[in-house]
Design brief:
The complex is a heterodimer of chains A (163) and B (188).
Chain A lengths: L1 E5 L3 H13 L3 E6 L2 H11 L3 E5 L7 H11 L4 E5 L4 H9 L4 E4 L4 H25 L6 E6 L1 E9 L5 E5 L2
Parallel strand pairs in A: 1-2, 1-3, 3-4, 4-5
Antiparallel strand pairs in A: 6-7, 7-8
Chain B lengths: L1 E5 L3 H13 L3 E6 L2 H10 L4 E5 L7 H11 L4 E5 L4 H10 L3 E4 L4 H49 L3 H15 L3 H12 L2
Parallel strand pairs in B: 1-2, 1-3, 3-4, 4-5
Helix pairs in contact in B: 2-3, 3-4, 5-6, 5-7, 6-7
Classes of the chains: A alpha/beta (163), B alpha/beta (188).
Chain lengths: 163, 188
Amino acid sequence: MKILIAEDETLIRLDLRGILERNGFSVCAEAKDGLEAVELARSTEPDAALLDVRMPQLDGIEAARRIYAERPIPIVMLTAFRDRATVEKAVAAGVFGYLLKPFREGDVAPALYAAAARHRELLAARRRLGADPPRRIEVTLGRKWPVQIERGEDGSLDVRVTP
Amino acid sequence: MKVLIAEDETLIRLDLRGMLESAGLEVCAEARDGVEAVELAETAEPDIAVLDVKMPRLDGIEAARRILDERPMPIVIVSAFTEQSLVRRAAEAGVYGYLAKPFREEDLLPAIATARARFDQLAAVREQVDSLAEALAARKAIERAKGLLMDAQGLSEQDAFARLRRASQSSGRPMRVIAEAIIETLSQ
């Protein structure tokens, strides 16, 4: 499994890389801030991402949201923030795991395995719902109505008629 | 949110209960082994389960699998053992989180929050898959019943459909039920 790590502190980043490699993961990219994380997720196509929350340029939660919107992968946050508000923000961004610093070697791989397995399940269920709908179609009901359709994060469809 | 905990060591179980309650969660059941966990998952109707792995009679991973078969809910494993084989077995069984012991209260709560949210997300998608399958099956039955009515009674497609709809409205039953009844009667 190819992992992207995003962490601005060099020592922790090195530590994480070591832990992942010792546990049979490969680290395909290391980002030092949130923007780099989004770019590297695009260019290196990781299977999962481990993101710090507080990073320069773009925080990890917003990075998680952007990474997930472009290409859905399981994301695990790794942070010293333990307050409910930050956890809730991360949960709302769609992350599959949330680890607190200081973390131990034994915490990382289990979180990634569980996240990857459950994310696969979610993608499989979404595929059964069908591919993403077209964003904009015309429907004829007596006259033509432009309809805007969006698939929500949970797979639900949001349909709006714009007369 | 009601939590089932399964842990054979009394002290850790008490500790776990304390952590959950201080976070405002309700511990609705305490199991001392895997078999008890499976039973309590059924009878105590928890919203989420936190299971130890090494327990008498049935280990936590097999208990998780049985619970998910019977009454799906988000499950977080807590264990002092984090070997890859165990972790993989747990992931395949369907758990949402796996925490290494000893853990802190602040480790447990985000694990529960993410487990709950991602479980609900999957449940919502699955519900849609089911309702989509239901809608497709209904449409198939209605098409078939319409065809049968057209053949049997020489109706136009529009009239056949109108008749189905009238029967549905006057009986208060869904179109699919009416269509299936017509198929049952006319296709013999």
